[in-house]
Amino acid sequence: MYKNLKNKVATPVIRRLPVYYRKLSDCVEQGRDRISSQELSELCGFSASQIRQDLNHFGGFGQQGYGYNTALLRDEIAQILGIHNRYKAVVVGAGRLGTAIFEYEGIRKSGFDIVALFDNDPKKIGMKVEHVTIEPADELLHYIDHHQVDVAIITVPKTAAEEIIRRLDAHGIRGIWNFAPVDVNVTHSIVENTRINDSILKLSYYLQHGR
Amino acid sequence: MYKNLKNKVATPVIRRLPVYYRKLSDCVEQGRDRISSQELSELCGFSASQIRQDLNHFGGFGQQGYGYNTALLRDEIAQILGIHNRYKAVVVGAGRLGTAIFEYEGIRKSGFDIVALFDNDPKKIGMKVEHVTIEPADELLHYIDHHQVDVAIITVPKTAAEEIIRRLDAHGIRGIWNFAPVDVNVTHSIVENTRINDSILKLSYYLQHGR
């Protein structure tokens, strides 16, 4: 049912789904087999009514007086999130962040297999990270033409990121996971921006004003 | 005035402040010296009335019929965010992510100077990243006792992160920037969590369901 959602789900709901997934996975790991929306609320920091409302978007799953079966709800959310799909990804920018992403097992667990790394630094080109050789950045589009690539992960500096994202979008890539602090208007691709710098500014705010 | 905010500002407002700061910085860089809330709305993706409401929390700044002076508003937001404060930070976990954070100039620009790196891998201890030597993780608390450390940046795996965060909190550290996918109930510290994995799950959702 949730594979073809009839109504568009609002961004804040989608932002909370990974949190539910993470908390429910922890519960399952700890051997906890059921949970009330109130208990889930305490774990997640969203109100119980918010949680019930969110999950109703996707058809409910809870039972009055029982709560939620943690493993079942986790698996349902995993399916809503599409975790069991497999995607091929390339990393553009084989610096420390790019290689950190490359090695991060959470990426693989979430359905993304990184098949290639690109960089424009001649000193890096040809080097291996695990079993993958770093390729020249100017062969990126050629590579995409000849291999299945669903997602590009952008870890190059701000100055280079805009142009690369624009080209990848024009080239028809499905997904772009962007770590550079730029916003690019795309026409085709789905872009997810991770703003590491916004996080540190939030911390800075709270250090000054208190929580 | 905004150094001692009388009313607690809601989390979503604080989450938008870094976005305003980033967009206004881009405007100033591009030589654009004024901007209406409508134009700022198009850049940020929040409604113009949302923006006016947010900025009213901190005293307004806009002028009817003129809009905002970009440099002035950027500087005001910088002060609200506390960017001009300097904090001393340590990185716990000198893997690829930890060293990527260490080298990321955005951190320094946001007011954080990383003064030490810790790891529990004997092969890493004693190695240098730029001018800083990697120290043994079990000397972390001792180090904090003898140096000014405002913030700890946690880039260790999930399994180790919980215990380290608990200890740092008990030890009275002011701020913790946590990259591990754990939530720890702290009593003292201000914790900012950056959830890289939640981002990839959001992307996965949109790849399945469309934007």
UniProtKB/TrEMBL annotation, chains A, B:
Modulates transcription in response to changes in cellular NADH/NAD(+) redox state. Keywords: Cytoplasm, DNA-binding, NAD, Repressor, Transcription, Transcription regulation. Residues 82-183 form the CoA-binding domain. PANTHER family: REDOX-SENSING TRANSCRIPTIONAL REPRESSOR REX (PTHR35786), REDOX-SENSING TRANSCRIPTIONAL REPRESSOR REX 1 (PTHR35786:SF1). Pfam families: CoA_binding, Put_DNA-bind_N. HAMAP family: Rex (MF_01131). Residues 19-58 bind DNA. Homodimer. Belongs to the transcriptional regulatory Rex family. It comes from Peptoniphilus equinus. This is Redox-sensing transcriptional repressor Rex. NAD(+) binds at residues 93-98. It is found in: Cytoplasm.
